[in-house]
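Narrative of accomplishments. A recurring question from our advisory board has been how the design workflow behaves on a single, concrete structure rather than in aggregate. To address it, we present the structure tokens for one chain from the evaluation set, followed by the sequence designed for it. No filtering or post-editing was applied between the two.
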């Protein structure tokens, strides 16, 4: 029995994401892209309307709603077997996305940014991803310093799990994510991947998002994010071996196949 895993395909409905900004900004194009990712092996589709790349400016809720809600409702209707996720830190956006058929809230602030987020996810019984991030996207890459990045991420995620459970979110509906590239320098990202087993040991399912990120460019010399697929595959396969089970990626087909093979070697849970 191979290890079980989910590929979370990225559907960015934004004009400015770091590696595919603007490409799927039109709702029809975003829906088409989501359908292609599902056909290529994505079992979760993560729809986002606000770029979280370093230095990105915030987007108004009304604009974010306009971007994501039509895409989510069409994908949820067309793909009943796929989990549709909304990548947002705003409760009004998450609520509308859940109404439109999403059932997963991927919040890069770990449900901290908006005080309405914890009660909303609890009430709706949605699955959620709690991600570690230092500061906020606008400022997070300003010389991040950690005594021990893995310890700090682990402690933060444990605190956020406790807050989520206190708010009434069932533990089995919580995933955690070390937040690769969010307020981290190259060495921090490498340490988190090297010691990912310590994040897996917390208990919940671990999500990783390394896809096309700039630290892969630093390690390979590839400035163009589209040329970072091999680096993305390496990190995802290593993360699977360390116990991560959800992989947030742009290049679903290639990553799915790499993980399908690696899952046979990694073996059953
Ligand atoms: N990375 C980005 C956006 N959302 N969500 C989770 N859970 N984990 C991540 O690593 C993550 C995320 C930034 O990448 P993008 O601009 O390509 O979407």
């Amino acid at each position: 029995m191979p290890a079980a895993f989910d590929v979370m395909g990225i559907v960015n409905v934004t004009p400015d994401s770091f590696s595919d900004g603007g490409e799927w900004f039109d709702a029809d194009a975003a829906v088409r892209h989501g359908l292609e990712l599902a056909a290529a092996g994505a079992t979760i589709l993560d729809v986002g309307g606000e770029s979280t790349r370093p230095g990105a400016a915030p987007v108004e809720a009304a604009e974010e709603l306009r971007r994501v809600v039509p895409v989510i409702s069409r994908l949820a209707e067309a793909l009943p077997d796929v989990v549709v996720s909304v990548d947002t830190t705003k409760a009004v956006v998450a609520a509308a996305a859940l109404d439109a058929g999403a059932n997963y809230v991927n919040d890069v602030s770990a449900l901290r940014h908006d005080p309405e987020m914890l009660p909303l996810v609890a009430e709706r019984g949605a699955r959620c991803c709690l991600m570690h991030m230092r500061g906020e996207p606008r400022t997070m890459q300003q010389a991040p310093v950690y005594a021990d990045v893995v310890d700090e991420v682990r402690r933060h995620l444990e605190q956020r799990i406790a807050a989520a459970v206190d708010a009434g979110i069932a533990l089995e509906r919580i995933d955690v994510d070390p937040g690769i590239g969010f307020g981290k320098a190259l060495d921090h990202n490498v340490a988190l991947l090297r010691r990912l087993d310590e994040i897996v040991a917390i208990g919940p399912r671990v999500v990783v998002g390394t896809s096309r990120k700039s630290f892969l460019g630093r390690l390979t010399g590839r400035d163009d994010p589209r040329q970072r697929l091999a680096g993305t595959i390496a990190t995802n396969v290593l993360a699977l071996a360390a116990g991560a089970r959800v992989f947030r990626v742009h290049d679903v087909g290639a990553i799915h196949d790499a993980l399908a093979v690696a899952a046979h070697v990694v073996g059953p849970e």
